Amino acid sequence: MRSLIIGSSALLLLVHSSFIHSAPLEAVRAQEPWHISLKDVDIKTFIEEVSSLTGETFIVDPRVSGKVTVLSQDPLNKRELLKLFVSTLNAHGFTIIPQGAQSKIAPLNMAKVEASVTQTGEPEHFETRLIKVSQMPAEELIPVLRPLLPGHANISAEKTSNSVIVTDQAANIERIEHVIRSIEEKASSDVSVVSLKYASVTQLLETLNDLAEQISKKGGREMQITADTRSNRLLLSGAAQDKEKVLKVVRQLDIPASRSNGPLVVRLRHGDAKNIVSSIEKLADSLGINTDEGQKSFVTADTQLNAIIVMAPKHHHDSIQSLIEKLDVSRAQVMVEAAIVEVSGDISEALGVQWAIDGRGNGTAGAGGVNFSDTGLSVGTVLKAIDEKKVPTSLPNGAIIGVGNDNFGALVTALSSNSNTNLLSTPSLLTLDNQEAEILVGQNVPFQTGSYATSGSGVANPFQTIERKDVGVTLKVTPHINDGEALRMDIVQEISSIAPTAQNVAAVDLITNKRAIKSTVMAKNGEVIVLGGLIQDDITQSVSKVPLLGSIPFIGALFRSTKDVHIKRNLLVLIRPSIIRDEQTLADISEQKYQNIRVIGEQKEAKESALPGKREELFDKAPNKPAESKSEPAAKVFKAPDAKPLTQRSSTSKATAPVHMEVAEPNYVIQLMSGQQRSHLEKIIERNPNLPLLIEERFLDQQQPIYSLVLGYYKSQAQAQDQIAIIPAELKAKGAFIRPSR
């Protein structure tokens, strides 16, 4: 431990409590830290001893004089000793001024004149620093910062570089610079928003940025200008007077401009003009097209051209057209197929015996008997019919046996009914994504809703009101395609029919059966899902009898009537959606549906369908048939197609061997007819042994195979077309057409 004790008349150096004068100076410096105790010591002696301990070189100004007292209880290292040294000098009106390798000790009032210019230094040193100001004029900071500095410090503003010059101790300068940065940070958060009425922010931004750069170079606060293209607004950040300069220029440039390009007309390719216009109008405020004053903007739809007309400032055209292009996209379609299977059966059995004895013999009332209402006919009616010798006008279903005279009558009724119904409906419909579609297959049935009878002059004028309702199979679907192959469907499925017991009754008595499902389901593309079902099993047993007598075995049958009804219904609804994203998929599904209907339309006995082979021929007229030649059949010349040997041809006939042709790979065939009866096509091949005919087999939906009779092969459509004209009439009667080979 090194101790420095300085008395009033001498400076004492104690090392390990021993007074040493002969120790070298370097050895003394190395033995830090030091304890310092000074009392009324000459300041120059203190400077000399600190210089010896720290190795620093000091130039002492002649005006430096006086005595100092310093007491330190804690040990000090070199840096702490120098800091204590500077503080002691400052307390006596002196400071250290760095001058290269040495430092000058001078009065404080001389320091601001002789201090060196630097940006960083030791906290204890006196220096002059240049602080750059970017967010406001530097002279505005001087009145704020001057009270924060001691009297010996100096502060001023330099307009050319917009800087603040401070002369003081480095520690004080650091504090002043921190205050300046805090003021600038607060000022930079002051942002002004300017809305443009006529001009486009993108067009003005470059001009305004050049202006802001010139303002900053002239010593003003740094300007920042940002453009918000969405709302057509400018964001200004900078000094108030600088922002006012920019605003003045903006007002001069933001003036109405002529619409040199006129209205913007956009023809749509896929979407509906009215729907897209509705979407744009909802987004008008967000797009900024309704914020312009002086130029009324509007967007309208031309339904005849399916186009959108835009009347808006030119700078809005690009954003509106870009939005229209994003909305005008081709939507996927969905083919929804439903299978509705309903199986129902009603079984009913009834047996009853009625009898009566008429004591008066007039056939109108009985003195005793058994009568049951559930048989549909009373014994009194039978007695009256016997008495009047005529058959009753209305009789129930089943076997009826009635015997008697004017005093006695007996009636036996028996009925057993069994009805079964199997219903299979497969409705399908095609619709766009997010578009509702509906299909109805049924009848429009009249229902009586009321009747009125008015009279005038004693003449009645009755009439009825009728309301017609649809009865049949209804499928209503709204598909929503999600990402990938999944889709959500809002489905309403309804099956209604007229009850069999009321089909031959007047409209007022019609009874309808109704099965309805309303649901929202998720399904994958091509997935078959069960939408809903119903299993109903109703059993009704009724017995009417005379108490006690009706319970007697065997004889009790004369005093009772029984009726059993068993109703059973099974209903199941299945749905299969198919997403169609391109034209080829749509064409394939259309072809599949058409071929299915052709197969259904085929008659038995191997007769072909009356529908043409290609669905396009339903609308396009078949080419005119060439006039039939009256010459002998031998005069016709059939050119063999360019094909390989027809090894696929049926070999059931006894005709000559197939023709062999050595040519290139086949490309086209002439399809003559198709159906599910292969034997019929084989007979045609037998009748035409000289023609290169063959049978192709294919499947649709894993159903029964479809057989096609084709002629070929040919390398081009033109070559195949030449051969159609000379094909026998029997073969092209069903509509021959050319297609690529499979």
Automatic annotation (TrEMBL):
Residues 662-740 form the SPOR domain. InterPro entries: Bact_Secretion_Sys_Channel, GspD-like_N0, GspD/PilQ, NolW-like, NolW-like_sf, SPOR-like_dom, SPOR-like_sf, T2SS/T3SS_dom. One of its GO terms (biological process) is protein secretion by the type II secretion system. Residues 605-633 have a biased composition (Basic and acidic residues). Residues 605-656 are annotated as: Disordered. It comes from the Bacteria. Belongs to the bacterial secretin family. GSP D subfamily. The gene is gspD. Residues 1-22 form the signal peptide. It is found in: Cell outer membrane. The lineage of its organism: Bacteria, Pseudomonadati, Pseudomonadota, Gammaproteobacteria, Pseudomonadales. One of its GO terms (molecular function) is peptidoglycan binding. This is Type II secretion system protein GspD. Keywords: Cell outer membrane, Membrane, Protein transport, Signal, Transmembrane, Transmembrane beta strand, Transport. One of its GO terms (cellular component) is cell outer membrane.
